[in-house]
Amino acid sequence: MPVTSIQKDVEALTLTFVAEFDAGVERVWQVWADARQLERWWGPPTWPATFEQHDFVVGGWSHYYMTGPEGEKARGWWRITALDAPHRLEFDDGFSDEHGNPIDADRPTHAVATLTADGARTRLTLVTRFVDADQLERMVNMGMEEGLREALGQIDGLLGDTGR
């Protein structure tokens, strides 16, 4: 399992995941940058993601939905706020309605993904910052911690796959 630690910090309003992968930073960066690879791991295995838009530039938007076991759809969005390829990605993240319109644009979480080389391996640190403690607890109660652990666990399977 690539996730080596998860830390919930209610005082700092953050949830931090650290994961390690047997691949270089450039290769791990591609699982974020390429929509077809991203949808193979974003979301837990029982809720696979489909990215309808992934404009991977600063100011760009991503729109996606995850499909549950009963066919239900949970929609979300990202707005890319900073990129420093292949080491750092920042984005706002929220839910959207059935038409892809953000329903919480004024209260997004903010995620920072940092990729660091460790020899031939890569360490990913993903920090999600919440607006307040209620949002943090609500997201954790919705299964964010386990869902993201499972999602990150799927990246290993992609890293040796050069197909898309």
- Class of secondary structure makeup: alpha+beta
Strand composition percent: 35-45%
The CATH first-level class comes to Alpha Beta
Number of strands: 8
**Per CATH, what is the topology?**
Alpha-D-Glucose-1,6-Bisphosphate, Chain A, domain 4
User: Mind summarizing the main beta sheet?
Assistant: 8 strands, antiparallel
Tally the structural domains. Answer: 1
Helix content percent band: 10-25%
CATH architecture label: 2-Layer Sandwich
Rg? 15 Å
Low-confidence stretches: none
Q: How do the helices and strands follow one another from N- to C-terminus?
A: EEHHEEEEEEHHH
Strand order of the main beta sheet, please? 1-2-8-7-6-5-4-3
What distance lies between the first and last C-alpha atoms, to the nearest angstrom?
Answer: 23 Å
CATH level 4 superfamily: START domain
Oligomer: single chain
Number of helices: 5
What number is the mean pLDDT? Answer: 94
Shape, principal axes of CA atoms = globular
